[in-house]
Amino acid sequence: MKLPVAVLAVFASVAVIIDATVHFREQFDDGDAWTSRWTPSKHKSDYGEWKLTAGKFYGDAEADKGIQTSQDARFYATSARFEPFSNEGKPLVVQFSVKHEQKIDCGGGYVKIFPSDLDQSDMHGDSQYYIMFGPDICGYSTKKVHVIFNYKGQNHLIKKDVKCKDDELTHLYTLILNPDQTYEVRIDNEKVESGSLEEDWDMLPAKKIKDPEAKKPSDWDDRAKIDDPTDTKPENWDKPETIPDPDAKKPDDWDEDMDGEWEPPSITNPDYQGEWKPKQIDNPDYKGAWVHPEIDNPEYSHDATMYKFDNIAVLGLDLWQVKSGTIFDNFIITDDVKEAEDFGKETWGVTKGPEKKMKEEQDDVERKLREEEEKSKKKDGEGDDDEEEDEEGEDEEEDEEGEGEQDEEDIESEEEDEDKRKDEL
């Protein structure tokens, strides 16, 4: 019996849902109950405090609530546990959202995935982890997405430079690790980097190495150009770089007994031609650049299980921030890429538009307030200038009145002096 295409599509959809496993999901949608699921580290006594909030701007006041760093210049350390699992033979997808609404200057926005033996109450920067993934910003030089895998006890950083978002809006970060040893990094559900573990990390020794027995032949000439043996230096080539200034004259007041023998100052010699070098010609014995032959590296051994972690059980936030205010939300760890895609669309995808609109409206209000303040300051400044002019005018009138009074006093004084002289006569 043939089934309708629509029914087959439903069966296929159900099969995908059944196969997908969500190992961890956190949306902070039940108030303060999140504190019972997350364990703060006590390794340091002064870790920064987390608070539940949607921030200063958001797309949905409830759905956008996440945990936010709340104190400047602090380390932060908290983690959540789930049932241990292995990603052997299946994709591993780690996804979460980050909002740096504080215009972050220096601080982490990444997560760490730990094995089940982690002591959560003692989690710290040196605690061994499986994966470290997410944005890290510090100044203008560091704005990247960390992708670090632990392999045989050593942490290995991706060799590629993966740029992160550095604005104030919420962004979705996704890491996909496949059992065929490939990976993909997505930001806002769009691929920004991909490749293979073997090529983009130095986990394994190089497949090829330079042959230690090979040496460049002694007669190997790798000079593409050589001096022309027939070229000779012209007889009049050598000229001094500087000469005495012919226009300089000894000052009239120069005293050789006091000042020593006078010497004219030096100037650049217009006839100076620099150091002579013979012309270059093609080297007739040139054999090209010598390439060191390579051999198979005896220390290299392919490992088809580099991607595999056997005891994944804890997601941790272990980071430092100079300026606090980052909000983490919408965590999911699953073995199904589509499950993560759909979760991202249902959470960040729904609220990103309204969040951006609210942010733009706030920015517009703040801009108008600044403009009004600037106008007000300018107006106050003009008012101060007018007052100064009025005061100057009053001062001038007072000066004139004072000068008039002084003139009268001077006349009276002169008259008194004249009377005195008359009396004396």
From TrEMBL:
GO terms for cellular component: cell surface; cortical granule; endoplasmic reticulum membrane; sarcoplasmic reticulum lumen. Residues 208-252, 353-381 have a biased composition (Basic and acidic residues). Pfam families: Calreticulin. GO terms for molecular function: calcium ion binding; carbohydrate binding; unfolded protein binding. Keywords: Calcium, Chaperone, Disulfide bond, Endoplasmic reticulum, Lectin, Metal-binding, Repeat, Signal, Zinc. The keyword Iron does not apply. Residues 382-418 have a biased composition (Acidic residues). Residues 1-20 form the signal peptide. GO terms for biological process: ERAD pathway; protein folding. InterPro entries: Calret/calnex, Calret/calnex_CS, Calreticulin. It is found in: Cell surface; Cytoplasmic vesicle, Secretory vesicle, Cortical granule; Endoplasmic reticulum lumen; Sarcoplasmic reticulum lumen. Residues 194-260, 345-425 are annotated as: Disordered. Its main location: other. Disulfide bonds join 106-138. Belongs to the calreticulin family. PANTHER family: CALRETICULIN AND CALNEXIN, CALRETICULIN-3. This is Calreticulin. It comes from Solea senegalensis (Senegalese sole).
